[in-house]
Model the fold of this input.
Amino acid sequence: LPHLSPGDGIDYLVGCQYCPATQRLYLVAGEHCGTLHLLAVEKEAVVALASLRGGGGGAARGHTSDVRCFLWDGGGLPWRVETTPAIHSTSPRRGLEHAQRKAVRRGLYSPGPEALADTTLMLSMYARSLSRASARSARSPPLLALAARTARRSVPAVAAQRRLLCDASGGPSSGVVTALDILRSVSGARYTMDDPLRASIGEGEPISAAIHRMVDEKIGSFVVRDAHDRVAGFLTPRDCLRCIARHGDKSRPGATPEGWNVPVSSVMTPAKDLVYLSPSDTLDEVRSLMALSGRRHIPVLAGSTLLGILNPKDIAKYIHLQRNASTSAKSEFVQTVMPRKGVPIGTKLTRGSGLAAEAALQLYSAVALLPHPAKTESGGEDAFLLGPHMIGVADGVGSWWEGGIDPAAFARGLMFASRNSCTKLKREEELDPAKVLLDAWHKMQISRLIGSSTACLVSLDPHKTELRAANIGDSGFLLLRRQAGSSSMVEPALGTLDSAAGIGAAGRKLHIAFRSPQQLRAFNTPYQLGRAPDSGDAPDDRFETPQDASLVRVPVRPGDILVLATDGLFDNVDEEALLDTIEDMIEGSGTGASPQQLADAIAARAKELSLDKSVDSPFAILAKDNDILWGGGRPDDITVLVSHILDRADARAPPTDWAAVSGPGEPPPELLEAEALLAAERLAAEARTASGLGAE
Done:
């Protein structure tokens, strides 16, 4: 091809586009190493105009995936002849020279001495590489004149994926393991390719039938089918136990619960809420899906065909088989099972399972709230809970404005109810975020307040050096810890990211020890607690309940920093920028920044980036990955709570006897009325109990 650089070639064609403005037909072609070429069809030949270099040759310079489609983005751009290939940014505030320098610096653009460009075009790479470094570099500003989207994974590029398995000596395996490989290796009750109905049950059958089949046939989970053999949902042993615990009614002590043997359809996870795997999903992707979704049994689908069900036991068995392929079964049992069989005599249970029986830690917290620039007078739609033992945030769903409903009311009501629940539960029993959220939600249901919001509550375990959290939606928290080598850093804590903290963190004083999971129904559609005007007394499947909350327990240490926030922070500030902000504040303060100083600085940085149209925010990057055109930051309400986790003996530790507060503003009157009604009913019940005792 004329003007194609030496060594370049074409492995496949992506597609073509005719441009009326230049009256030319343009082709997009690619190489399996990730390189793309923009070609033009001339009268006598196909001419190479420019190239986008892939990263197949070495360090994370670009993506290595095959591109399967592109979006022409020539509309509205100035069509003119250029002497050198021009690069446009997605943002009008970024100049051509700046975009070109940045692209060349990152190794994503290499024009070549004879490249031609007679149009000003744009090419944005949205590479979905398994390597975070590759994915990050592929998000750099756009290059030539198309918007190209890569395939999820390139088969020819599998060698570039990171190590998935190790053999017994720790070396890498020779191939990439997929979900289908695992299914084939551990075929059994969960492998349904040959007998798809064996691991299924009808939606109208009673739960007792499902339990008996699980025991008799040794099946760990069921795909639920409807009358036409279509997948209606999924049933696990945990669903069965939950059904007995919630619906069982003991008519007399010691009797078998009654009323729990309901149809499978009333207990299963419906098909619309399921997550599933594809046969080509890698082992890493299988593990990630299980970790992020909280599901242990996941169906594997090929189009609309169910192939099987994978669980962690299958993965463990597959890895074991791969590492011990040449070992005899007897030898395996003697070496692995026998030395570990039987709990030693005299083994005792200790409170906290060996951790501190009474954790001497407490929170030193502060809050910063910056409403959306257009909602300054109303105070925004976020809400917070700030207490000595528990903190929380809620983000009201703004679309309720369209129906004339204040989105802030539900969020503020939920945090006010959580504050009162903290007071009640602290007096009656230990504080647990899940119990507080459930109690507050019940109060909101009684108030019949219309609206919805996300919610995240966090507290310290009173007996163990652990953080407990309950999260619904896309609010969340980060736990920051000092880097290895500092005086406060000891052994990596299980359940955290401590062991991976040194990767790419040279010069950092802090690292992310834990990031809370988020929950979304779809992009920008988070899980939410709520009530609609037409909601009755029955559960409304348009909203989640506290039973759907992601529950977290993570080890903590004195000196850790907790950052709890609504999506106004996480949509605009990536983790590197957040660490930069906190480390700058700590270094600049001399004596150490207070929680209030950190909260103010983080919120201010988030607001600054939310209004910046020249740099793509985390929200903008994710939007483009979901085929939504969005550039720059995302203006929103921003609520940030920062807590220092301190030893109670620390001089900075505040008193713990102050009353929790919620805000901003006052709670909705409907909730106040519901609280008063519940208080009256409680007093009446106590009076009846006292009267009965007096009569006796």
In short: The longest strand covers residues 361-370. DSSP finds 15 helices and 27 strands in the chain. The two ends are 102 Å apart (CA to CA). Confidence is low (pLDDT under 50) at residues 56-61, 73-174, 188-193, 352-357.
